[in-house]
Amino acid sequence: MITRIKGQLIDVQSSEAILEVGALTYALLVPAADVPELQSKVGDEVEFHTIHYLESQSQGTSFAPRLIGFSNETNRAFFELFTTVKGIGNRKALRALVRPFNETATAIAQRDVSALTDLPEIGKRSAETIIAALHGKVDAFAGQAASVIEPMTSPLYSDAIEMLMQLGESRKDARQLVNKVIALEPDMDSADQIVQATFQLKGKS
């Protein structure tokens, strides 16, 4: 089993990195989130932490070996956990994980259905399934944000974000504002209260 590989990065496409290792050239599947950074490293020596698996071909009549490459062991471990969710296979996870893995882990820790449905191929039902399966298991990947911010019920949290977006905030800025408010006032029980508190917070900054 191949768990780590180092070589010269020859090319990076939308979902694949080409790595030259001595006389051998490997094609590695890579998460969408890693593609921009990898494209800036073409020509450099890079190291991938890998998952080696067999992918079904021709409706299961044959199998092809595949390598998935990650920039570090933590991302590999999160991917392995993420793909334990029913309906989330390796290929779907690679396409869906377009944001830094710690942000996706934080969304799961906060039960943020809206953030997860922003990911490609993740609808509301899939987002709810992911949260049900992984909530309580991702704090180590989410980092400090998950431990500081109190988990919110999805409708309340999402409604506040949507209201701020209607008032002109980007989704990213709206989410950050709501996170800050919840960290300061975890007992708020309505989206209106949260939105009003974000105005006060912005007024102080």
Can you tell me about this structure?
The protein has helices spanning about 35-40, 75-80, 90-95, 100-110, 115, 125-135, 140, 145-150, 155-165, 170-185, 190-205; strands at about 5-10, 15-20, 25-30, 45-55, 60-70. It is α+β, with helices and mostly antiparallel strands. Among the domains are: about 1-70, Nucleic acid-binding proteins (OB fold (Dihydrolipoamide Acetyltransferase, E2P)); about 150-205, Helicase, Ruva Protein, domain 3, CATH 1.10.8. Strands 3-2-1-4-5 form a five-stranded antiparallel sheet. Helix 9 packs across helix 10. It is elongated, with a radius of gyration of 20 Å. The model is unreliable at about 145-155 (pLDDT under 50).
Main features:
Helicase, Ruva Protein, domain 3; five-stranded antiparallel beta sheet; elongated; alpha+beta; 11 helices; 205 residues; OB fold (Dihydrolipoamide Acetyltransferase, E2P); 47% helix; single chain
**SSE string, helix = H, strand = E?**
EEEHEEHHHHHHHHHH
Number of beta strands? 5
**CATH classification, class level of the domain at 1-71:** Mainly Beta
Helix fraction bin: 40-55%
Q: Which of globular, elongated, flat, extended, rod-shaped describes the shape?
A: elongated
% residues in beta strands: 15-25%
Number of helices: 11
Unreliable runs: 144-154
